[in-house]
Design brief:
Radius of gyration: 21 Å
Strand content: 15-25%
Distance between the termini: 26 Å
Number of helices: 11
Bound molecules: nicotinamide-adenine-dinucleotide
Shape: globular
Helix content: 25-40%
Length: 356
Amino acid sequence: MTTIDPTSNGSAISDPLSVPPFAVISGGQVSGVLRGQEKEIVELVEATYRLHGAGDSVNPPSYFLRFPDRPSSRIIALPASIGGDVGVDGLKWVSSFPENVAAGIPRASAVLILNDHDTGYPFACLEASIISAARTAGSAALAADWLSRGRPRPTRVGFVGVGLIARYIHTFLAETGWSFDEIGVHDLSAGSANGFRGYLEQSGTAGRITVHDGAEELIRSSDLVVFATVAAQPHVHDVSWLAHNPVVLHVSLRDLAPQILLASTNVVDDVDHCLKANTSPHLAEQLTGNRDFLLGTLDEVMAGRVSVPAGRPVIFSPFGLGVLDLAVGKYVYDKVVASGGLHVIDDFFHELRRHG
Ligand SMILES: NC(=O)c1ccc[n+]([C@@H]2O[C@H](COP(=O)([O-])OP(=O)(O)OC[C@H]3O[C@@H](n4cnc5c(N)ncnc54)[C@H](O)[C@@H]3O)[C@@H](O)[C@H]2O)c1
């Protein structure tokens, strides 16, 4: 931590370094902080994308841990460092075990570690499945807003794949001013579709809810399409399904055949991140041998450095950046500290004298 000595000419002096206390923040505390803060989170995501775009972050590639005996599962490490007012380093460690869902427990589970800027010491471990869902939904709502400018604002939304992420995205859209006349729902699992319909009904939406048997009818009848499936490879191939030029939030990244991307305007969160791990943009790059099909990043759209043409579908494929988890995690941490509810683990760092 750096302070200004009031007796000097404004020169900076440094406090002696000290080991920070280590705290654990539960999912209940995270949820308590984030509920009702959707607008603030979207603004925080926007500010973080701008910071990342300006180069005031370090966000190396995510590391995918996969298992020969459990091919559908993975655990991903997302290390990152963020500058600006946030000034924190850290790591999200997030598991995806799709078979959990059949057993009645969520697919994803995660922790976020925050590291102190000056000493490197980890100072907090936060439950992060909610942080992850919130930053993903915040990014989707931000993209829906920016990418639908210059075309009629969508009033018909369709969700393909309706688990936890779809629920968060709907909540973030609703809480940031979107209202829909029509809400389409499609999921391979009737149980998921019914559960999501139940959530929508309880949310008090005025929109007419239709559960579709397939993706085609849903896509054709929606101006805003959200993909939040766990599809490992493309299952939407027919370019004509998007002939009405919808805005597509391709959050699950692997639903669309490369031909669909090549016939659309493509926006990503970070080019190098997104063109990896057999995402649809990665498949499009492999097919064409170049990146010409990309318009740019959402940050470039927001800064006005690129503009989204009307008259084509526009697809947002966000890889999901560790800097977003850090920004939202630090926001939660600061709120918990301010509320006096921080649970510190006494004696967590114990071996602190170098020679005993
Ligand atoms: N890009 C990002 O930043 C980001 C962040 C978080 C999650 N995600 C992705 O979002 C997706 C959804 O996450 P979740 O936690 O809601 O998962 P979930 O398992 O709770 O729900 C996924 C749903 O998709 C359905 N589904 C699978 N294949 C389908 C298909 N071909 N057509 C229709 N429905 C299909 C499943 O039946 C299930 O109900 C995952 O792929 C996850 O990796 C992306």
